[in-house]
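Q: What does the predicted 3D structure of SusC/RagA family TonB-linked outer membrane protein look like?
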Amino acid sequence: MRIAKLKQEKIHLLTRKFVLLLCVTLCCVTSVQAQQTAVEGTVRDAKTKDALAGATIQLKGESTSVQTDQSGIFKINAAPSDILIISYMGYKSKESSIDNQRSIDILLESQFTEVEEVVVQVGYGNLKQREVTSAVAHVDSSQFRQSGARSPLDLIQGKVAGMQVTRTSGSNPNSSPNVQLRGVVSVAGSASPLYVIDGIPGGNMDLLQQDDILSIDVLKDGSGAAIYGSSANAGVILVTTKKGKAGPAQFSYNNYIRKEYLQRRPDVLSAREFREKIATGELPESVADRGYNTDFYDMIINHNNISHNHNLAMSGGTAETNYRASANYRNLEGIGLENGRQEFGARLNINQRGLDDRLNIMMNLATNFNNANLLGGGGWESEAFKNPTFSNFNDDGSYYFDLQSTNQYARLMQETSRRKQQTTSADFKADLDILPGLKGSVFGSYQRNAYNDSQYAPQNSESSLENTDYPGGAYAAKSDFLSQSYAFEPTLHFSKLLGTQHNFTAIGGYSYRYYIEEGMNASNRGFINDLFREDNLGQGEALIDGRATMGSFKNDNTLIAFFGRVNYSFADKYMFQAIVRREGSSRFGENNKWGTFPAVSAGWNLSEEDFMEEMDFVDFLKLRLGYGVTGNSGFANNASRVTLGGGGRYLYPDGQYRETYGPNRNPNPNLRWETKHEVNLGVDFTLFRQRLSGSLDLFQRKTVDLLDTYDSPQPPFIQSSIYTNVGTISSRGIELAFNYKAITKEHFKWGIDVAASTTRNVLDTYSNDVYTREYKDFGSIGGAGDLGNAFITYEGEKVGQFWGKRFAGFTDEGKWLFYNRNGEAVRNDQINYSKDRDMTDLAPIGNAVPKYYLSLNNSFNYKRFDFRVFMRGKFGYDILNTTALTYGNKVWTGNLLRDAFTKYDEIDDTYMYSDYYLENGSHWKLDEITVGYTFNIPSTTIKNLRVYLTGQNLATITSYSGSDPDFISDTGLGNADANGRSLGIDSRGAYPSTRSFLFGINFGF
């Protein structure tokens, strides 16, 4: 009994201990659970900001873990003192402290080096950057400029070494930049690169909005560009737009608002100063004081300008079907009155997979509607240099008009000039995996660009009142343009890995392109009322009198080609690429319809060699060597054929007037494409544990069979000129681009990007056995006086050479003196103006081509703040200051530069062109500063929110006394560009230089 009792007490004791232990444990667990909270977060790629689905989040020191969903979102219970370990295949693991945070945004960095992970477009396919053997520059959206692009090319201005993007019309929203790669390649042929948008050759850049662009790749040398044949002489720019991705629906909204302020204008006399100069006799007696105080220039400034841009994008889908769609609206207002552009656009991308994942079909559709006000943007010269004591108004409030000048303010208030434009593109691509390693593709595209221009000057406008034929009769005009282009390109892609070290890839294909354009125009005068404006052209009196104008045109061209490319790599060390393109064009002469464009290049990854193992500061080092041939078919349709033109109306024997026709162009059956031969030596490198990376390229190129118009003998030719191939032009240069990660702390990062280049261009020959020309002159000076051209480019001399008189001082009477060829100071009438270099007193006095280009970008990140400072400059060149030449001389009877009474006060003579007006154009520009902040919003709905403020064109260091030196053209040989600007010559009526400030929002949900 006692033993049983003891056993029973022992059992009770053990039971009590167990219950007590259980209670303590439960209390501890409850206490721990009470301290833990639910933590939410997202895991994204640090560079692309894409969500990472399936990433693992684990509590450090414990087995508790969760994974992210398709949107990269996770939820986990954790205490404030816990540490999360985040890991994902292909990315570096990361630890993150909770620290009482309820929401955490995790950014993971790739394990691969930047060279390994970057994929570049090389034409009809992609390559990893470490596999590229030609000179290719890759700029992705994270590197784009932040100041609100008027053109997609503005996004990469200063970002690609050897590529000039110059806005000679400044911030005018209806202008386009000039683009030049590695110097001048042509005299009269096309100097524009080939633009390829998502595979569409000759893509229309107006269809691109900055928020829809993923990356831009530039094929700079012939060994890469040869795949595009006779369209690639000036380089190739490949644009890749953003595409759909599998995953839940995602939305993004991006916008900005920009305000521009006048930064620099001609430094002219005020009305008070002008009146004082009249009183002191410093201005001629013929100059009148009308008693007003008018700032004509300021009156055509749009001080209330506000530009804004809005882009809404959505994407999502499954692995089989995904999409991306975007809609864009932007309203760009220039600093000039009646100078703006409204655009509505949309873009759609659909990807569909099928046939057991062997078939992929991709379709893109884009359209853009543009309403542009073309009336403003000009008139700056006349308004800057008018007599400021005059007025735009009569005493009764009506507009003041005279025959000596145009009342630009009245013109902007009364007249209209508008463009309504729609541009559309559609493309389709189907990829089919035929066999392992063999894929067939079919690509087709269609582009359509149509616009209608209309102008109207009412009855009371200056244009109508001063017309001598129909005084007081209104003027109206309309024109239409339509272009369509088609492309069809089937290709076969082959890839094969032999063993573990021999990797072969090849592509072969056929290309068909057809382009057609047509248009018409009509104008009429003498309308007796303003009721119908330009919408009833037939009612003007000029049509009844046979003085109305009418015209139309239509032309087309066809290009077909066969092409192939082979890439081979061995052991990831040695790489080889060969390209050949056989191409025919309807533009060429009957005897030269076809051309062949070959290219070869090789690469050597030295960093993979055993002898590099001890050089542990080298992460990656590749040597490239390439040679390629490209062509230029960018000249007028039918240039090789006889064409007919009207010869005028004549009275026939039957008493009727009839139009006559005859040949207006000589045939040239031997007309062919210009051909450029280029050698490129390059090095790609990543050093010091990926802190310093970049590339260095040295190139030499020569373009032969230059296209231009020459005098032709009569007979046998009918016309006095012929378009033919004569001469060569060459260039050589050095390009350097690198990125340096100066600081890479956890909360603070500092990166430096540099792009620099130097190029030398020479016109080697300009004659052959049949056609001879010793020199070519360019660059009309214009303005007051008949001063001719500023450039004479002789055979064997550098492009952009100013030729003119050498200033030797002034006489006591203020008359010009110049040096003759013997170094003697003589009057202008004693100068020999011959262009024979053995006789002339003219001499090379400067050069308009910048010798060096440099851009520098500093990027800072502190926690959630980002800060960018972008600067760029051009060095070692001259600018001809024609504004000073014309308005620094007191011969002019309107307003004058203040310098006319200080710097140029000695002049008491007519207008003269000489090195007296050449100025150093070198400058350094603080071009862009951006400050941004990315919010950490504890929400599963809002994916990201960033706000930023950008200032553009903030300061310029230069000794040039004219307008913004960055507006001076630095492309071409000296012939006027699309905006009427010539190399190295300032514009007396330049669009005003502006400083702008932009506020933007990037919002994802």
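A (community wiki): The structure tokens above were generated from the sequence. Confidence is low (pLDDT under 50) at residues 1-8, 17-34. The two ends are 78 Å apart (CA to CA).
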